[in-house]
Structures are given as C-alpha cells and as structure tokens.
From TrEMBL, chain A:
The lineage of its organism: Bacteria, Bacillati, Actinomycetota, Actinomycetes, Mycobacteriales. It is found in: Cell membrane; Membrane. It comes from Rhodococcus wratislaviensis NBRC 100605. This is Putative ABC transporter permease protein. GO terms for cellular component: plasma membrane. Pfam families: BPD_transp_1. Belongs to the binding-protein-dependent transport system permease family.
From TrEMBL, chain B:
GO terms for biological process: glycine betaine transport; transmembrane transport. It is found in: Cell membrane; Membrane. Keywords: Membrane, Transmembrane, Transmembrane helix, Transport. This is Putative ABC transporter permease protein. The keyword Transmembrane applies. The chain crosses the membrane at residues 31-55, 75-101, 153-177, 189-214. InterPro entries: ABC_transp_perm/SBD, MetI-like, MetI-like_sf. Pfam families: BPD_transp_1 (PF00528). Residues 31-206 form the ABC transmembrane type-1 domain. It is a multi-pass membrane protein.
Amino acid sequence: MRWLIDNFSVVVDLTKTHLYLALVPLLIGLLIAVPVGTAIRGASWLRKITLIVAGIAFTIPSLALFVTIPSVVGLQILDPLNVVIALTIYSTALLIRAVPEALDSVPADVVDSATAMGFTRLRRALTVELPLALPVLVANVRVVAVTNISLVSVGSLIGIGGLGTLFTQGYQRDYPDQILAGIIAIVVLALAFDLLLFLVGRALTPWTRQQKVRRTPLVAGQSAAPAAGEAS
Amino acid sequence: MNIFGGAWEYIVDPGNWSGSTGIGARILEHLWYSFLAVALSAVVAVPIGLIIGHLRKGDVVVVGLVNALRSLPTLGLLTFLVLLLGLGLIPPILALVILGIPPVLAGTYAGVANVDRTVVDAARAMGMTEWQVLTRVEAPNALPLMLGGLRNATLQIIATATVAAYVNLGGLGRYIFDGLALRQYDRVLVGALLVTILALVVDGLLALAVWASVPGTGRLRRNPSAEQIAERAS
C-alpha cells in the first residue's frame, strides 16, 4: 500500500492512459454495433452469420490478437493502436450480439403501436425501440467496459502502457507492493466505471423505476388478499 | 504477409512437432494447465452455485462476488502470486482458477435458480427430500447453463494460460514470449495461431456438449419427413 501512496501521481498518469485504451474501443464498438446490430436484426441469416463471426472473434485469445495485429495492419509492435484495434474487435463482437438481443426485449405490441401510429422505420428505431432496449444494452456495455479495463493490462506484456505496466515492472523488480497497487487501481477503476454506467443507465430509463412503484397499490386495490400475503 | 508464411511453414514442418519442446508437447502442456484450472474452479464453484441456487436467496451475493472477481486482472494476480509463493505450477494455476470461478458460479447459480418453480414444487409435493430435489430435478435441468458456464471458463482459461508463460511456465505462450524476447515475430505468430486454433477447437467441442445436455427430447425433434407425415395422417 505504501508504494501506491508514495507514487500516487504515477498511478494517476497510468490510469489516464489505461482508461483511454479501454474506453476508445468501447465507443468505437458502440458506434459500429448499434447501427449494424439494428440493421441485421430483421434478416435471420445475416444475424446467424454475424453471431458466428463474432463468436470466433471473441474466441481469439487477447495476447494472440495483440501480437498478430502489428503483422496484419503493418504497425510497430509497440504502437498503442494495436491494443485499441484488438479491443475494438472484442467490443464490437460482444456488442453486435447484444444489440439485436436488446431490441428483442422490446415488447412487440409497443413496436406495433408505433407502426400503427405511422412511425417510419428509422423514427421507430430511434425513438421507440432503442430507448426501450437500453436496460439490456446498458447491462452489456457494463460487461464490455469491465472486460476492456481488465484486458488492457495484458497489453503491458508487449510493452504498451496503462496500469499493467505496474505488473511487469513490479515482477521484474521483484516488488509485490507495486503489483498490488496495480491490482487495486484496476479493480477500483473497473468497479467505479461499472457503477457509473449503472447510474447512467438508470438515469436514461426513468420508466423502469416508476412502474414498480405504481404497480403495488394497484394490485392491492384490486385484490387485497394476495397483496396482503406478499407484504407479510 | 511473408511473416505469416514463415509461421505457417514452422507449424506444418513435422520436425517442429516432436521432442520435449516441440509443438505437440507445448499443446499438451497448455491443455494440462487448462484442464487442471477448469477442474479446480468447478470443484470450488459448482457446489456453491448449487447451494445458493437451490436456496434462491443469494442473488446479490453471487452477482457481487462474480463482478468483483471478474474485475481482478489475471496478469496482476499471476505476477503477485509468483512473487509471493515462488515459481512453479501452483501460482499460475491458482490465478487461472480464480479466473475460472466467476463464469462457473454464475452459470450454475443461474441454471438452478431458473428451473421452473412449478417443477420444483411438484418434486417436493411428490415427497422428494431437498437433496433429491437438488440432485434429481434441479441439477439435470440446470445442466445446459452449468456447462455453458464451464465453456466460458474453459475458453478464458485457455486464452489466459498463454500469459502463464510470462512467469516461466510452458504451454503455447512460450512461443509468444520467446519470440518477443528474440524479436522473431514469425515465432510469436506461431504461438498466436496455435493458441487461437486450440481455443476454437475446444470451444466447438464444448458447444456440442452443451447442446447434447439439454434435457428432454426437444433437440432431437427435427422437421418430420414426408413419410412420417403420411404415417401420422393415416
């Protein structure tokens, strides 16, 4: 713990790099997966192919991907862009599966109502389906964020910054305190970000909370016996 | 692309497969570490998941535990445990076990907790003891989700066992780290390609196992042939 306190500014600097390397891929992944995921939902064969490709992409071990991308793209092995590209592939693979699933969670009658009211497909997708799909989508975004924050540390094995540097340095210097500082920083970062996304998700979907509050008195008014039984 | 050709030539050369540091031995090492870690995480996580799922009360505990464990960086854990316990098989396996516990626990818990309430109540009404309800009704019905969790754990462990080579362990990660140290990037690719193929093959086999474990006859139901339809009609 003392190392963490003594070198706090170093840890803060590494945290910034770490966050950048973890979150840029998440954003790019969202920018790709939301439109593509929405578009492929209708065509079941496209959706199946996407599922298979995404499954294979996610099966590639992170270290293997980190070291393969430089040869494919033609970058230097120490370029941080390698990690960004690799994590973008993972984020997109996870999210492109999640977007159609999230859209499936939207009740069909709501979608039908929107169509009946004359919404165009685009307007229906943007103002009805995507907002109602948010709870499932946010849950998946949280998983991707935590996974990315954890995976960036593997990048230190090929010499790319972030908090993982504390692991490789601490290991080479035989200094467990430094490694512990890195573990604490990453866990705190992951949990903090997870909580932040949870709160953002809650703020964006106020109706998910109102429903629960409203339902209880309604049930109690209609049939007193089961409600009383539940309360006891 | 030349570098890929070099890596591929290395892989298909039979001379590189034999011997104690050949590709064959490295794959076996990799599978051995992975099997050990998956088995140990199952030994720890399955009973806990079964009990909490049976009681249907530990939702918050399981989710919290799984999330906290999931955010632990394995590389940090690995290097920390090696410095603490010394080199050898135990620290890396321990790190991999901690990596494998969350998916197995989540899968087992979700599998048991999601068994249809009425099915469980029916089993109780027929006079089954709690142990019988768990082992004869809940566990078989939970099998697909449990195996799904095991599949996730196996995939993550095979991927991360590569990292174990960083702390002087064998396995396919050796090619990656030796190649990086010598700046022989075709050798690095050999490791990357082999571990990717291994992960894909094992994951495919486990997907089959998950599919075969779905209880009931639903998975065997196919589109009836013309003959069957004729038979039924008559």
